[in-house]
Write a structure and sequence with these properties.
There is one protein chain. Helices cover 33% and strands 19% of the residues. It is an alpha/beta fold and 323 residues long. β8, α4 and β9 form a beta-alpha-beta unit. The chain has a single domain, classed as TIM Barrel (Alpha-Beta Barrel), CATH 3.20.20. It has ten helices and 16 strands. α6 runs parallel beside α7. The strands form four sheets. Strands 3-16-15-10-9-8-7-4 form an eight-stranded parallel beta sheet. It has a four-stranded antiparallel beta sheet with strand order 5-6-14-11. A two-stranded antiparallel sheet has the order 1-2. Bound molecules: ligand RRO.
Length: 323
């Protein structure tokens, strides 16, 4: 006998629509790569362009090319990674030059910039405003540059920087934020963001200045900053979820939230959707698994949504229940 017809034949993963929008830019899928070590070279960005990522996101760039911090600077951990890369990148002009070629891959392009001053950021945002980039993510939260505190923890300087950066063109601008740990900080940052035409925020960067010790060698496991580095992966998912949730309750709906932190399967992606994310970025899992993670996680998310009877991102976004 042939298999019985399912009670709800359309309730399968292939009928789940994972399309979404960030800052008015259409994405054909809910997940893409986070800015990180494997989106630095043109070869890496081109490989992303041929994958199932919804967008091509670049490594944060600076005015001049950088080698980054001394090695060892990236160590895998059982549930994630500890890293202090120190902004290794090709310099913003190299990314500007490759954008027309990346554009041929037919995916939205998100450029990440991380200047060392407002003037640096002004130069880079102005340049990318005149480029083929679709979205500009300004990184206010790199934890790994010695002597350079994370701008996102200084509310006054964040405000001053946004005054300058938000009037340089019409392309949607977003902010990559550090993790916040107190409600007063969520609301202070949300109040600043609401004053400017910010299209999206990305929560969270790695949890900065954490220390992992190898008891056998009695040593720190990475070299920069005496072993202090950014913690990534499963360890930080509850912090990422809390930041997405807090900002989704504090910001108006027209400011999209991108979730990052510990997304390695469809369930993680679904949890960020419940918390209020319009899209998610994958960092550590992409570094461990490669570009195959994007189709695997999307398929898992679609299967999970189909099982629960959901067909669109909008149906689930922000629908977290509280007790
Ligand atoms: O390059 C890095 O060390 C780095 C950056 Br720019 C960032 O934004 N977040 C992070 O964890 N590492």
């Amino acid at each position: 006998m042939s298999d019985p017809t399912p009670a709800c034949p359309r309730n399968t993963a292939e009928f789940v629509d994972l399309t979404t929008h960030i800052g008015g830019i259409a994405l054909d899928n809910y997940l893409f790569n986070a800015s990180g070590p494997l989106c630095t070279s043109e070869a890496e960005l081109t490989q992303l362009g041929h994958s199932a990522t919804a967008a091509i996101m670049t490594k944060s760039c600076t005015i001049l090319p950088r080698e980054g911090n001394a090695e060892p600077r990236y160590q895998n951990l059982p549930l994630g990674a500890l890293q202090s890369m120190g902004l290794p990148n090709l310099g913003y002009q190299a990314y500007l030059a490759m954008l027309p070629r990346l554009k041929l891959l037919n995916k939205p392009i998100v450029v990440s910039i991380s200047g060392f001053s407002v003037t640096d950021n002004q130069t880079m945002v102005s340049a990318f405003q005149q480029s083929d980039a679709d979205l500009i993510e300004v990184n206010f939260s790199c934890p790994n540059i010695e002597g350079k505190p994370q701008l996102g923890y200084d509310f006054e300087q964040t405000d001053q920087a946004l005054k300058v950066l938000c009037q340089l063109g019409d392309k949607p601008i977003g902010l990559k934020l550090p993790p916040y740990f107190d409600f007063s900080h969520f609301s202070a940052m949300a109040d600043i963001i609401k004053q400017y035409p910010i299209s999206f925020i990305t929560c969270i960067n790695s949890v900065g200045n954490t220390l992992v010790i190898d008891a056998e060698t009695e040593s720190a496991i990475i070299k920069p900053k005496g072993g202090f580095g950014g913690l990534c992966g499963d360890y930080i998912k509850p912090i990422g979820l809390a930041n997405v949730r807090a900002f989704s309750t504090l910001l108006p709906e027209n400011i999209d939230i991108i979730g990052v932190g510990g997304i390695k399967n469809g369930t993680d992606a679904f949890e960020y959707l419940l918390a209020g994310a319009s899209a998610v970025q994958v960092a550590t899992c992409y570094e461990k698994e490669g570009v195959e993670c994007f189709s695997r996680i999307s398929n898992e998310l679609a299967t999970l949504m189909a099982r629960k009877g959901y067909k669109t991102i909008a149906e689930v976004k922000g629908q977290l229940k509280t007790l």
